[in-house]
Amino acid sequence: MNDNLHQLRCFGCGDRIAGSDARPDFRCVHCGDLFEVEYAGWNQRKGHDRPNAGALKWLWRERRSSSEVLDQSGVWRFRELLPILDSFGNAVTLREGNTPLYPLLRTAKALGMDQLFAKHQGMNPTGSFKDTGMTAALSVARERGFEWVACASTGNTSAAMAAYAARAGLRSLVLIPEGKIAWGKLSQAMDYGAVTCQLKTDFDGCVSVLTEIVQRAPIYLLNSVNPYRLEGQKTPALEIAEAFDWMVPDHLIVPGGNLANSSALGKGFRELHELGLVARMPRISVIQAEGANPLARSFRLNQGKAMEPVEAHTRATAIRIGNPASWRKAAKTIQETAGWCLDVTETEIAIAKAELGAEGLGCEPASAVTLAGLKKLRAENKIAGSESVVLVLTGHTLKDADYTIDFHRGTLLTDREKAGYEAELDQLRRNAVVVDATPAAVLAALEGSAG
Ligand code: F0G
Q1: Which atom of ligand 1 approaches the CA of 122 most closely?
Q2: What is the mean pLDDT of residues 54-63?
Q3: Distance in angstroms (rounded) separating the CA atoms of residues 101 and 120
Q4: In whole angstroms, what is the distance from residue 33 CA to residue 322 CA?
Q5: What CATH code would you report for 101-125+240-428?
Q6: Could you read off the pLDDT of 116-152 as tens digits, one per residue?
Q7: Ligand 1 atom 15 nearest Cα
Q8: What is the CA(254)–ligand 1 centre distance, in A?
Q9: How far apart (Å, rounded) are the C-alpha atoms in residues 112 and 377?
Q10: Atom of ligand 1 nearest to the CA of 223
């Protein structure tokens, strides 16, 4: 490990340790909180030592046309801000990152907004934003000589981990809550050769079991308590800043589950600001599902100072998490950027997902909370029509095809959940019809749908 260039700093008590001294569960021995990667005195560095903002911007853009493997990764392209490996030759990459930023023209118009975009992290190699974090932390595991890696997951982390482990020739262990993850994700872990255990508990229960396992066996933990995951997950912030020609958007909206991603994006923008690459940070807001909303409750009750775990229930299985590990980090990001944390209902999520789909952007339900949250923030006048807003879509629609099909068949929501939204739902639903195999029958169906 390149301990000269980075160290780990406890988020709770500020204690600093070498990267190689972290406990297997990545908790501080003094206060039990999580660590953050900190780089050798960036803040204090002056003159020659401090990375040169203009040179970095030029270098990172140049690399987009390079044929070098590392340059083709949207994570390692920014490697000056990720000095976490002794040798970049140890990086395990599937050409993650460099994901598209799409304008959402129709949705913007409907919401009376000038500039609305979606950063589609579902366009990563395994279909979710987890790839950006996995390339970073799994490379550390490989460099440190681990043979086994493991995670507890609601599905996407396990898919990403299994793929990157397979590329590196490492073995992987996946713990998932039985019956509570989308099939697409389970099939990926199997496809990439992970040892997959479905535990009769929820995500939070899987985390407890794994935390014990990594203390008993030499297995490297790849949940987002691993601070190196966040180093990779901060790079979409760099991509967004670059896409906005280093002006940064006014507002970023992120889904909240275990609450690492919002913290990672906050760290990315914070570092860009500290290094003088951007003039300010965007406002960062986090949206949770109503049935898995411990941080949103905490913001309602005490502005994010204390959080009570909840028993989580939502069809957006990716964010079905009641006791998020990184809540303190996420709360800090929201507070320091003057963002909001709120929750949205199952109906609001389903409608938002269908609206994004109708714009040609397929995402999973957990990602659609961002649009549902934006609609609420607009309705409450917390976002002006003139502000530039980026929604972070975290996973691809094919991850959870069952959800989409159930929505369009009309079987996803209960009558109670549909109440008051019937017209909106009718307009969005596009059920597949069964017709005779004749041109006349298909044309009749076409006429029916046009009406
Ligand atoms: N969106 C998707 C598609 C996710 O898979 C997750 C988390 C989140 C949002 C929330 O991100 O946890 O950093 O706040 N999925 C994890 C997993 C927990 O195991 O795949 P977060």
Answers
A1: 3
A2: 96
A3: 6
A4: 18
A5: 3.40.50.1100
A6: 999 999 999 999 999 999 999 999 999 999 999 999 9
A7: 318
A8: 10
A9: 13
A10: 19
